[in-house]
């Protein structure tokens, strides 16, 4: 297995590629997960000068025959970002390794223990949504198509498509912890409908199920009657 290093809208120097090989020891990773299929490192750069302290971002994605493990970090230079992301990856690999060998009979962590096991837990408000960061001054917004952009941009649109098998709620919570995100989209194996698990205030969990209502769909259809556009 090789490490694939690629840049998104930025060049990746050979010196950084060598640093990646030195930092991510394949033999050490394979001891923690012997079913690794691929290891990708993506480097990107934020051109906004107001984010100079977090302008370089590194995302590490490890795919195996088990769940995908992802770790990302941002810093003022790619080497520091790589070090931070590598530390997160190592912690999540060890957690998965320990759980694999002690899954039978092992106790489940409580909601109060989640901050100690899941790094970068976001601050949420009372409704369970991510609390917005406070800005010192109001930033003017402008409309571009269907999107509202603050200040001068830049306008960044990122779209990802993932293929995943249906899973239980318990497995979705487990995989959300592995990737280190505050929510996880999955297909419920019982209802076969898309669902989302997320962290609520005080580190409780929430789940949203999405079901199609044929009556609502028909009421929003142009054939359902009414006038459009005034």
Briefly summarize what is shown.
The chain has 230 residues and is α+β, with helices and mostly antiparallel strands. The protein contains 6 helices and 9 strands. The model is unreliable at 224-230 (pLDDT under 50).
What features would you highlight for this structure?
230 residues; alpha+beta; 4-stranded mixed sheet; 3-stranded antiparallel sheet; 6 helices; 27% helix; globular; disordered C terminus; cytoplasm; Ribosome hibernation promoting factor
Can you describe this structure?
Residues 224-230 have low confidence and may be disordered. The protein has a four-stranded mixed sheet. It is of the alpha+beta class and 230 residues long. The relative contact order is 0.10. It is 27% helix and 24% strand. Helix 1 (14-23) runs parallel beside helix 3. A hairpin with a 2-residue loop joins strand 5 and strand 6 (147-150). It is built from six helices and nine strands.
Structural class: alpha+beta
* Number of continuous helical runs: 6
- Gap between N and C termini: 60 Å
Beta-sheet strand percentage?
15-25%
Mean pLDDT: 76
Q: What spatial form do the alpha-carbon principal axes imply?
A: globular
Keywords: Cytoplasm, Translation regulation
Subcellular location: Cytoplasm
Function: Required for dimerization of active 70S ribosomes into 100S ribosomes in stationary phase; 100S ribosomes are translationally inactive and sometimes present during exponential growth.
Subunit structure: Interacts with 100S ribosomes.
